[in-house]
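Working notes for the structural subgroup meeting. M.R. asked for a predicted model of this chain before we commit to crystallization trials. I am recording the input and output together here so anyone reviewing the notebook later can reproduce the run.

Input as submitted:
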Amino acid sequence: MNELMSNTLCCSSLRILALGFFLHLFLAVPAHSTSNDLPDWEMCLAISAKKVGVPTTLLHAIVDVESNGHPWAFGFRNKNGKWASRYLDDRQTAEEFLRYLWKEQLHFDAGLAQISSPNLKRFWKTKGISPLDALEPCTNLQLAAIVLGEQIEKHGYTWRAVAGYNGSVKYIPRVWKALCQRQPMAGCPRG
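Returned structure, recorded in token form:
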């Protein structure tokens, strides 16, 4: 019973925080860099975020957590069952590695927003988007927006939707921290 009460209080608090969080982000002026060395995919990120109605800074924070902005990043469960990461130097090497992971039927996440192999299979079947296409940053971000949009449809504009993107509530503090680094706001940790 105490666990149920605790979960109910936790979820209620999360909903209140989420509402304030999303209102703040939608009403706040986004922080933009004036640097000329922005990655080529920045515009795609903004368009993808707009398609699902989330602030660009939120999708960017997800990319920061997932790949640290590396377009050829992989997270994968190796043959020993341990999770590993690999950041490859170029598209060709990334394609070769993705083919290997696919052939070995290992669970993996690929690209900027770390699209999971089950989602890659689903998008291949339903949208005709090849898993190799997901290594293209704009395509990867569009797929990320679809996954995040599905979670928002399921959970509303809440942190649970953000957790659903990754599949774990442990993901929420990591995205919150990355979001605060991009756009400091009330409630962000100091220092």
